[in-house]
Amino acid sequence: MSMPRLIALASGKGGVGKTCLAIGLAQALAEAGGRVALVDGDLGLANVDVQLGLDPRHDLGDVLTGRCAAEAAILHHPAGFAVLPGRSGSTALATLDRAGAAEVITLLRGLPMDWVVLDLGAGIGAAQRGLAALADELVVVATEEPTSITDAYAVLKLHRRDAPSGRAGLLVNMAAQPARVHAALDAACRGFLGQGLTLLGAVRRDPRVPAAIRAQAPLLTRHPNTPAAEDLRRIAAQLHLARQAA
Question: Does the pLDDT value for residue 88 go beyond 70?
Fold first, then answer.
């Protein structure tokens, strides 16, 4: 059995909807026929379980410390994907070093899945950077806010330093004019990092997204035909095609 493809979602700042996108992308990949695990990689302020209304008995911290096997910590969501919860309030996990990040990635590559969607914590801490550098692809989430764009560039700049040959792309959330966000970041990456930036997709602003979060339900389950859900399915289809072509 081949190893899963590991996609890490990151952002320079919080509040850009990254966790909601990770949940939606995991469900969209599963709908397209993949075996998918959504892993909460926010190692200090985990909240995937909260957004999904789950009450986990075990988490990633338990797996890493040997308290339980990964299979015992994984929850199977009715939407068709597996969830490996993170641990909230753990300073030990939040300060994970490069060796610890490698241990996490090795664990995730051993899961019997086609895809692993890793929801990283916001920011540019050592733990986030270590996990991002070892992923197959880094997806940097940004909105049209100037602070989000600036912080997204910081993530991309450090990722280029940590993983010079790594793959990284942009996903614009709550988007009205995603091309403008991409143009600004692409120009910065070309000018200062010597390489352009791929636009992986955009998810439109949609009032049913916060409604799904409040209901602690995946967007594609609660509002399957909403514009944001359509965008997530389109991005998942592109990821499937890119994997098949590789």
Answer: no
